[in-house]
Amino acid sequence: MPLRRYPHTSMAQFHIAPSILSADFSRLGEEVRNVVAAGADWIHFDVMDNHYVPNLTIGPLVCEAIRPHVDVPIDVHLMVRPVDRIVPDFAKAGANTISFHPEGSDHIDRTLSLIRDHGCKAGLVFNPATSLNYLDHVMDKVDLVLIMSVNPGFGGQSFIPEALNKLREARARIDAYRDRTGREIHLEVDGGVKVDNIAEIAAAGADSFVAGSAIFGKHDYKAVIDAMRAELAKVESGAQA
Ligand code: DX5
Ligand code: ZN
Predict the structure, then answer these.
(1) Where does the chain bind substrate (predicted)?
(2) Is the distance from the beta carbon of residue 82 to the nearest atom of ligand 1 less than 6 Å?
């Protein structure tokens, strides 16, 4: 399949964000240092509360603990309900971007403002069955749109192909917004991203890629990240996948 070329997307603008959900939690500092040394652009930090999603993971204390180990942005993905109480704690713990699910907040506009007021970039996350219409009236407060390509809660699930259509729709909204305002919004994808599907996902419009098991499940993180970048280079040059 010929891959579409995105004139505004260059390799420098593709971000690979390993999810530490699949890392060895007994040596998290070493794991994040290693994955950044291997070429990671962001660290993706999955926060699950056993209410909004049926799993329980890590909180602000762990964010604060890994912060001194890496210089790259920490991309916090909140799968929690309610959201607002915990936002300042993550900002203090060194998060750079804080994203949440519209279903987790009673007042989406307020939560977006709260995140930005604490000096972080604000992201809105869309589950496979959640409509992008939540973006309609808040684009000015959104710095990142995160499309879930699995149902949230667990690493290691398979990519849901319908996410490609949603990415195309989100890309169209983001491009139209950029043409109108000049402001860039990141388009990130999360769930089941691997070396063998990342090019197709990028061609659908994603510029930032969360990958947990694909990276931390392997011994050689650099080999995986290099292979992902090689696939992304095909998209940039408009080559065949
Ligand atoms: C799922 C998480 C993802 C997950 C990705 O709820 O938000 O970030 O860890 O893991 P993989 O890449 O293994 O699907
Ligand atoms: Zn995530």
Answers:
(1) 19, 77, 153-156, 190-192, 212-213
(2) no
